[in-house]
Amino acid sequence: MATSPSPANRNVPQMRLFVWLDPLTRPLLLLLVSAVDRVLTPIQRRVGIDKMGYFFVLPNLLIFGIFVLFPMLLNFYYAMTGGTKLFPEDRPFIGLGNFNNLFDCGDFLSPNSCQEDLFWRGIFNTIQFVVFQVSGIVVFSLLTALVLNRKIVARGFFRSVFFYPVLLSPVVVALIWKWVLQHEGVLNAIVEIFGGESTRWLLDTNWALFWVVFVSVWALMGFYTLILLAGLQSIPPELYEASSIDGANNWQDFRFVTMPLLMPTMFVVLVLSLIRAVQMFDQIYVLTGGGPGTRTQLLVQYIYTTGFSNQIQLFGLSAAASMVLGITLLILTLLQLRLGNQSSLA
Q1: 114: which strand partners?
Q2: Could you tell me the end-to-end alpha-carbon distance of the chain, in angstroms, rounded to an integer?
Q3: How many Cβ atoms sit within 10 Å of the Cβ of residue 102?
Q4: Would you say 273 and 138 are in contact if contact means Cβ atoms under 8 Å apart?
Q5: What is the spatial distance between Cα 209 and Cα 199, in angstroms, rounded to a whole number?
Q6: Chain Cα centroid distance, residue 278
Q7: Helices (H), the chain
Q8: Contact between 304 and 290 (Cβ < 8 Å)
Q9: Which pLDDT belongs to residue 56?
Q10: Is the dihedral of CA 264, 270, 271, 276 positive or negative?
Q11: What domains can you pick out in the chain, each with its CATH number?
Q12: What is the pLDDT of residues 18-73, one digit of tens each?
């Protein structure tokens, strides 16, 4: 008849885990393990081993509730109130008044006819930015992943080089490129060497949006390249061998083998890049500040300036604009996921 191990025997494997430690560290870790065991054992006896998972998840749920869920509910309340006071009890309830101000337009295609013209300029600028930035990320990330998936010289080195900008802070990236693009920066120095004229790249309305998109694509494409590269490596090589036996060329391999199998990964890239593009703020704020004029002022910057940066802080209007942004982003994400599921089933 099997007997349960005694407490001394039960601790033998635990003791063996610390044999490799030095004599000074070992007693401290053993003391820590003993303290944790004394705390968790009574809890486990009380709630049962099946429910201990909830105990370990509880700290994360508390953090989520305090820093995510509660601010969302508070934002909803602020969107229904008016005035310039900060504390909720000092703000009068106005219902949908803030939303009526945002959508009070004579012509939705003409921001000048809207009461909150900056809100609609931010929407149009955001749409332009999202279209160009997401398209650029998908195209360049795919091309880079296809190249890095081949057997090239120093492939590991180039993979790390393309991923390195992702590790940098967005503010650092913006400051570096601002130094490159300023009137007396590196780019103008190169242009003048070849006989061209220096340009105020970030103050020119014809160039500002282009450089904002370029910098964001440069900074983020390494992350999406890594995702697509993982998708490419998951494709069985036997499929390419079979297609070569059938006489398929490289373009046919890409069209009929690579892209159909890579499409689920591509939709992940589309969803993630779309969410990131709509929420873009830090790089653009440091790079151009939303200028020249309002040429690069996106919707997130309008929310920030309306609620915190202007002389009159309209927290309710800012909260209402953020709710419009969140609902729109949720609808677009669900639509993309639905299209992705339909394409995978087909």
Answers
A1: 105
A2: 59
A3: 20
A4: yes
A5: 15
A6: 9
A7: 7-10, 12-16, 25-47, 52-64, 70-79, 97-102, 117-148, 155-167, 170-181, 186-193, 208-233, 237-245, 250-253, 259-278, 282-287, 299-304, 315-345
A8: no
A9: 85
A10: positive
A11: 7-76 (no CATH), 108-345 (1.10.3720.10)
A12: 555 566 677 777 788 788 788 888 888 888 888 888 888 999 999 999 999 999 99
pLDDT in tens, 204-244: 998 999 999 999 999 999 999 999 999 999 999 999 999 98
Backbone angles phi, psi at 89, to 5 degrees: -70, -15
User: Residue 300 and residue 67: Cα distance in Å, rounded?
Assistant: 19
- The average pLDDT across 232-257 equals 91
Residues near 159 by Cβ (< 8 Å), separated by ≥ 6? 148, 226, 229
Are 223 and 166 spatial neighbours (Cβ–Cβ below 8 Å)? Answer: yes
Q: What is the pTM of this model?
A: 0.83
- Measured in whole angstroms, the distance separating CA 22 from the mean position of its chain's CA atoms is 43
**Distance of alpha carbon 240 from alpha carbon 258, whole angstroms:** 9
Report the alpha-carbon distance of residue 68 to residue 74 in Å, rounded: 10
